[in-house]
């Protein structure tokens, strides 16, 4: 296979766009927490960049995209330390080292997404260790199942164009597991824990939306009509997600909010991620709208069930990922997918079953392994900060810094002894 210069140029741009999504997520998440935890929240995203990069180069890429080691479960060890990959290696019509980097950007973002569920209460050192172990034990195997050579879900026929299973459901299920391991924040259900900086939230979602075009259209590995429809689908779904969420707020609460607008955009983008390469623009309208409506209700589940998913990773990313992945079975159009058709296009119920199995298996695996990793870390080094540290502000206790000169009540933050 020869290198396609146009596809390579587009993937270089797309990779940079996807890498920008993690700082964008850091700003998005940072605006959503209280002022005493903004730096810690941003750092939880930023630390994922070097930790996942090192882990990916050492073993993650080989486990995810190496030659299947048997049964479609995990890749082999042939590319440990990126061995066997040089500047002349080609994969999917682009330099393999660029393919490595593009997929690395996905892994970084997925790890960072998980952090939103445990805002304001996790030890930074424990989180850093979790990210490294999780990349190898959760993300890499699922990436191999869905996208790797001989991956069993790929062979089975479950479809995921750009990460509904691998990114969204994996991050959401893992987030739920950690939320249960750490338990709720002090004051959960009894105190209002509102976003401290809504302009940050909107800036962050703007950066995420921009990067998402590279996330989805870059996954086409081509500069052609399919990449164009994916690009358009991504725009449409983000718009309809916002409109759906705002409509629910308007009729349920009486006021459409800026926070709802940002959340709706993300819900629509999450849902179109797995389906962007399989549905038509009309299908993208349905995907985005359904995700905006369903996710706007799903974020309330945590209060009913009692788990504290601080920044609604479960309600938006897990639920949105399920919506988008499942709707492939209904809305896949052969004119876009070039293959399977959904139930509404005459394809029968088969693809619905395949999508459902993929959702259940990936969610169960990610939740179980993440829960075990979280419990082991909690038992050995402790995953949660002390009550005193949480009450005094996790920024200062974990990083000896504060984001603002004055706290939310106008009191100066001072170092001990000053």
UniProtKB/TrEMBL annotation:
Domain Ammonium transporter AmtB-like per the UniProt entry, residue ranges: 9-404
CC terms in the record's Gene Ontology section: plasma membrane
Top-level taxonomic group: Bacteria
TM region(s), chain numbering: 6-29, 41-59, 97-119, 126-147, 159-183, 195-215, 227-248, 255-272, 278-301, 313-336, 356-377
Subcellular location: Cell membrane; Membrane
Pfam families: Ammonium_transp
Keywords, ordered alphabetically: Ammonia transport, Membrane, Transmembrane, Transmembrane helix, Transport
Record's bilayer topology term: Multi-pass membrane protein
GO molecular function, a single term: ammonium channel activity
PANTHER family: AMMONIUM TRANSPORTER MEP2
UniProt family annotation: Belongs to the ammonia transporter channel (TC 1.A.11.2) family.
UniProt name for this protein: Ammonium transporter
Organism listed in the record: Mycolicibacterium neoaurum (Mycobacterium neoaurum)
Gene name, Swiss-Prot/TrEMBL: amt_1
